[in-house]
TrEMBL record:
InterPro entries: FAD-bd_PCMH, FAD-bd_PCMH-like_sf, FAD-bd_PCMH_sub2, FAD_lactone_oxidase-like, Oxid_FAD_bind_N. Residues 1-22 are annotated as: Disordered. It comes from Kitasatospora kazusensis. The lineage of its organism: Bacteria, Bacillati, Actinomycetota, Actinomycetes, Kitasatosporales. Pfam families: FAD_binding_4 (PF01565). Residues 17-186 form the FAD-binding PCMH-type domain. This is FAD-binding oxidoreductase.
């Protein structure tokens, strides 16, 4: 079959470090989509969501990319508190449709501009990962157009291996056409949030470790050293259990303010010195303890308040290094912070979370333990070698790097973190025998040809 016409485009991830050119097509009608996949395009194909993964996960150099794969469609069942949504529907669209019914997505990553397909493919987690697990724990079913061109309905119980290979499988088993999710009931759009400043890593980890709130996350000063190493501010939040008519006179509404475009920052603005100044200022301006009511966008999606902030950081782009290590390996967090400092990596933003249950599948990121995410400018001398050393520390501790944030992990380090993947490969071979589904990330990590 001749592939449908579409523009040849340079595609990049959110970090804007690695790009590649692909023919971009979509949305396609179900039959046309099925014919396209079954026709096994010569250089493979891949579904792309909103391009919020940081590296090359949503790219397929010289091949086809479905962007979007489907049209948006939302079918809530308010009595059952579930929703069926197509793969290209965004979380922002879902929130606008669901919140007025007192329903909330059970997992909210740090941006609302991701799609259902991208969320399933990365088995995303939110600030409630410890309490509620990642998305896989909330999925009732996934409707997958497998790389074999067949429709597979994957339920968590009914078809274990295919479900587990697809959730977290970074788009390499097929195209997520739709998913059905269980939802959380809310009576208010407000959260009661306690913010606590911690002078060092032990204090910060203790706040997260002992938190009883549903949501818990910490901003961490990635530049502090010595006795202040790992200082930060923990935010612990819970939904109000009853509406607050004074604070939300319009009832259950979801209407985040329009995000202005981020101003372009001067080239090379992030140096070790400016990163340190920015982080110190942030720490000092945080009160020792504060209690406040926050709305959904303010609590969950602060980074969405600036449109295209990733472009403001300059043409070289930036890297995010997010890893998780088991609870007993908290020393790795210390080693990583010290190594970033020694190498002058200019880490300008850090987030620490305590993780709970592991995710669904072999490629799913979450494990019980500590997750640290650090943003840093790309292209600084020595950053590549530094991150390879960190990969070894993380792998030796039994941890792993998050593929949805990754742009540079090598195959050996990946195998040490996620391997052996015989079961995943066997299931993929069943769902996609001709390896129709391919991505730049998949090739880099030896997951596809
Ligand atoms: C500011 C910011 C904050 C973030 N915070 C978090 C966080 O807190 N927790 C977290 O878990 N993640 C977080 N992320 C990462 C993000 O949630 C994931 O990268 C997610 O996969 C992005 O979804 P997307 O729709 O943009 O997918 P894309 O980036 O376009 O694609 C990601 C992967 O999904 C696959 N895919 C997309 N659509 C489909 C489909 N229909 N069928 C099959 N495969 C598909 C692609 O092939 C690719 O492998 C954050 C990202 C940003 C930019």
């Amino acid at each position: 079959m001749n592939a449908p016409a579409g523009p040849d485009r340079l595609l990049q991830g959110w970090g804007r470090t690695t790009g590649s050119r692909s023919r971009v097509v979509g949305p396609l009608a179900p039959d046309a989509l099925r014919d396209l996949v079954a026709g096994r395009p010569e250089r493979g194909l891949l579904a792309r969501g909103a391009g919020r993964s940081y590296g090359d996960a949503a790219q397929n150099a010289d091949g086809l990319v479905l962007a979007p794969a489907t049209g948006p469609r939302i079918e809530p069942d308010t009595a059952a508190a579930t929703v069926r949504a197509t793969g290209s529907t965004t979380f922002a669209e879902l929130l606008a449709a669901l919140v007025p019914h007192g329903l909330l997505l059970p997992v909210l990553p740090g941006t609302r501009h991701l799609t259902v397909g991208g969320a399933v493919a990365a088995d995303v987690h939110g600030k409630n990962q410890r309490a509620d697990g990642s998305l896989s724990h909330w999925l009732e079913s996934v409707e997958l157009l497998g790389g074999d061109g067949e429709l597979h309905t994957l339920g968590a119980d009914r078809d274990g291996p295919a479900f587990r290979a697809t959730v977290g499988g970074m788009g390499l088993t097929g195209v997520v056409l739709a998913a059905t999710l269980r939802l959380v009931r809310i009576r208010s759009t407000l959260l009661r949030v306690g913010s606590y400043r911690a002078p060092d890593l032990d204090a910060l980890m203790a706040l997260l470790d002992t938190a009883t709130s549903r949501y818990a996350v910490a901003w961490i000063d990635t530049t502090a050293t010595g006795r202040s190493l790992g200082r930060g501010v923990a935010d612990l939040g819970d939904h109000l259990t009853a509406p607050d008519p004074a604070a939300e006179p319009d009832g259950l509404r979801y209407g985040p303010a329009r995000a202005p475009r981020a101003p372009q920052l001067p080239l090379g603005v992030f140096t070790p010195l400016t990163a340190r100044a920015f982080n110190s200022l942030w720490y000092r301006k945080a009160p020792r303890e504060r209690h406040a009511l926050q709305g959904l966008p303010e609590f969950f999606h602060r980074l969405d308040a600036l449109h295209e902030w990733n472009r403001a950081l300059g043409p070289r782009g930036f890297l995010q290094y997010q890893f998780v290590v088991p609870p007993q390996a908290r020393h790795v967090v210390v080693q990583v912070l010290e190594a970033l400092h020694r190498a002058g990596a200019a880490p300008f933003l850090g987030t620490l979370k305590r993780f709970g249950p592991a995710g669904g599948g072999p490629l799913s990121f979450p494990l019980p333990g500590w997750s640290l995410a650090v943003d840093m400018p790309a292209g600084r001398r020595g950053t590549g070698g530094l991150l390879e050393r960190l990969d070894r520390l993380v792998a030796e501790a039994g941890g792993r790097v998050y593929l949805a944030k990754d742009a540079r992990l090598g195959r050996a380090a990946f195998d040490a973190m996620y391997g052996p993947l015989d079961d995943w490969r066997a299931t993929r071979a069943r769902l996609d025998p001709a390896e129709a589904m391919r991505s730049d990330l998949g090739r880099r990590l030896g997951l596809c040809r």
